[in-house]
Amino acid sequence: MAATTMEQLVSLCKRRGFIFQNADIYGGQQGVYDYGPLGVELKNNLKAAWWRAMVYERDDVEGLDAAILTNRKVLKYSGHEDTFSDPMVDCKKCKGRFRADHIKDGKCPNCGASDLTEPRPFNLMFKTQVGPVESAENIGYLRPETAQAIFTQFKNVVDSTSRKLPFGIAQIGKSFRNEITPRNFIFRVREFEQAELEYFVFPGDDEKWHEIWKNERINWWLEQGLSMENIHIYTTPSDDLAHYAKACYDIEYRFPHGMEELEGIANRRDYDLGNHTKAQEEFELEAHCHQNPDSTTKLCIRDDESGKWIVPFVIEPSMGIDRGVLALLTEAYTEEDLGDGNSRVVLKLKKHLAPIKVAIIPLKKNSEEIMAKCHELKNKLMKLGIGRVQLENTGNIGKAYRRHDEVGTPLCLTVDFETIENKPETVTIRDRDTMEQIRVSTDELPAYLREYFL
């Protein structure tokens, strides 16, 4: 089977309402995308699956939903103001701006000219003013990552939950990076969503937990439908690590544009808590942690065995939700030859991720009896809690099947004249992947769907 191309995915996403270019009627806004009716369902289902695995199914993780606007001091002591930058070059001929590490053979990617400026650092954070007066004291930022609020709220979470090491704090939310060259559809954008876990462990246990979380996250992605043949684990060289990291694994995925990072699992050591904490001389911190005269709180936890206060090390699995959506679409997109010159596009998403779980299709849309039964069944099935049930009232059952194959709907339920005339009532259920059809009694339908989805 031929590899899925980005052109196929972009076409599908616009045609079927998954993802649209932001401000499209004004020519679009580079690096910003909007999720359409089906895209928001897929995205929410992916987030729900992550939250369920990270928070609900574990006994050692709490959740958080922190603000996007970030106090400047947070990003000062986290190191982002000084280090969160990419090298940028300008083309003197076409005036284009590019990341220096994306330049090949010293030539402009846009016009091919070699007349480029020397690389200079470009800070990726979006700066804003908080309050009515513009001044240095009122500078704030749109957060470049969701992690920092977890660190600054560490003590509040510990105090309110009485957590002991090891434990984690999870968060899903928007982040913002002023990318020099957004590219590859929703892979690299300026506004994106992250799902991050900060897992706090005893110093000395960090390397063990780093390995544990690497394996946990690989297995989770396999459960979402990605195949191991499209996954590669990259170990970041020590000279290429982020300023906060002791070590980092990248779970890379074979996207249409190549093998690139889907999720990072970083050992952030005690960098963040150490730099945000008050009176650091009381703790045994690594040399990279500096005195913080602005913090009012000791971000530490008491070891029950020794009675000492310690600053935990942190393991951070951090995934991009948008990249996750792109990986799922890439893996699921399938073109099948049905013979006799016929073919179909089918999105073979895992059923818990599918935007629409069941499509109810009337054999004849102008029949009052059939339509009344369709509405009755939809109201009945929506109460099952299986997800979105959609009434597909197009009047062409063949086209309806093809549309729902293309958007990944696992089951299509057809209401026909036999449903109305026969006792007991029965409907036809068609499976997306096999295209096989069976008749099921409407009385047995709720139990059938519960077993299928739940």
Give an account of the 3D structure:
The protein is of the alpha+beta class and 454 residues long. The protein has 3 domains: 6-84 and 125-329, 2-Layer Sandwich (BirA Bifunctional Protein, domain 2); 85-123, no CATH class; 356-453, Anticodon-binding domain (Rossmann fold, 3-Layer(aba) Sandwich), CATH 3.40.50. The chain contains 13 helices and 24 strands. It has helices at 6-16, 37-56, 72-77, 80-83, 147-152, 154-161, 206-223, 271-276, 321-332, 368-382, 397-407, 417-421, 445-453; strands spanning 19-21, 33-35, 61-64, 69-71, 85-90, 97-99, 120-123, 126-129, 139-142, 167-176, 191-201, 231-235, 247-255, 258-269, 301-302, 309-310, 313-320, 333-339, 342-347, 358-362, 389-391, 411-415, 426-431, 437-441. The chain has a 7-stranded mixed sheet, with helices on both faces. A 5-stranded mixed sheet has the order 21-20-22-23-24, with helices on both faces. A hairpin with a 5-residue loop joins strand 23 and strand 24 (437-441). Helix 2 (37-56) packs across helix 9. It is globular and about 80 Å long. The model has no long low-confidence stretch (mean pLDDT 93).
